[in-house]
What does this fold into?
Amino acid sequence: MKAAIRKITVIVEETHLEAGIAIKPTTRKAVAAAVLNNPYAGQFAEDLTELIDIGAELGGLLGEKCIQALGILPKDAESYGKAAMVGENGELEHAAALLHPKLGAPLRKAVEKGAALVPSSKKMGSCGQPLDVPLGHKDAAFVRSHFDGIEVRINDAPRANEILVAVAVTDSGRPLPRVGGLTADAAKGLDGLR
It folds into this structure.
């Protein structure tokens, strides 16, 4: 692996009760986050190939960790998302290099299919700052019940020369969705939208 990973954290969030109503089955989200050295920290580089290639490695690794943490088959994943936070010696383009050119394809493989764009966010930050990972249905972006997010925060990351990269996967949408629109069971997943 090209990535110099300092640590990986995996979190599973289960919602059992919402607005006083029992959620059965529970809604579950997993987020896997890697803290890695930023090879471009503190310098400008025109070519960010090293981070682009690392993104390809992390998409599968972190996606698989989420699937394992949820204890589901890849086909049973319903939504996904990705995010990155660069430390103070990095730049937003470093996060973009990790997330956009190559991370998506291995993540899609880890969750089986993934016709929709992977929602993403990027930011600069420091140790302990929260990173919000947006979520959307993996095959049909118009499924409103799956517009969601999960927060990850690691007390000692990202340090100035690091990047915190996170992938999130769910086995369901939000608890008690009721804003209408296309439902997950009616989605076709052919064009990534419906």
User: Anything to note?
Assistant: Strands lie at 5-18, 21-37, 79-86, 120-124, 131-137, 148-152, 162-170. The domain at 5-186 is CATH 3.30.1330.110 (60s Ribosomal Protein L30; Chain: A;). The chain is about 20% helix and 35% strand. The helical segments are 49-70, 92-99, 104-111.
